[in-house]
Amino acid sequence: xxxxxxxxxxxxxxxxxxxxxxxxxxxxxxxxxxxxxxxxxxxxxxxxxxxxxxxxxxxxxxxxxxxxxxxxxxxxxxxxxxxxxxxxxxxxxxxxxxxxxxxxxxxxxxxxxxxxxxxxxxxxxxxxxxxxxxxxxxxxxxxxxxxxxxxxxxxxxxxxxxxxxxxxxxxxxxxxxxxxxxxxxxxxxxxxxxxxxxxxxxxxxxxxxx
Length: 210
Prior knowledge:
Number of helices: 6
Largest sheet: 8 strands, mixed
Number of domains: 1
Radius of gyration: 16 Å
Helix content: 25-40%
Structural class: alpha/beta
Number of strands: 10
Order of helices and strands: EEHEHEHEHEHEHEEE
Distance between the termini: 36 Å
CATH topology: Rossmann fold
């Protein structure tokens, strides 16, 4: 069965250690983190559990754990992701936990019997499951009450003639989610998925498009 595969040759995320950004990666991180904060403040109760699936260098895991010391943050990535290990060691936060495993869809279905969260991050990773992306996404949604997903824009062309990115984008638009504005229209859009109806409070909806 197809498993997720991630290119390890690029530093996508910033290096962040206990309040300080030590180096910048190729992807913007701070504004994306503000989107996570908005979801947490609007929808999640204190003492929450967050699962960061495809945590990369652990930027979002460490920042949430640092800002919410009563939370439990679980970073998940493949065994080859040494940057995740280093960042967790540098931050040394007691509420951060790490799982290093290469997950197939069947493994994700088993994972939900072990971990139950309030929020799961799935940032730019679901396409790595290729033709198994939809059962993988359906399984990931079962891990938490809310899932914050970042995907490629609908018209993304990676030169392989694949309709994969369009299919994933359309699934997010047509499914039970809310589309969030992104700081850069050319960047990857984010979606909040939920297994139950929800609304953002009126005074906190300026970044939300229904």
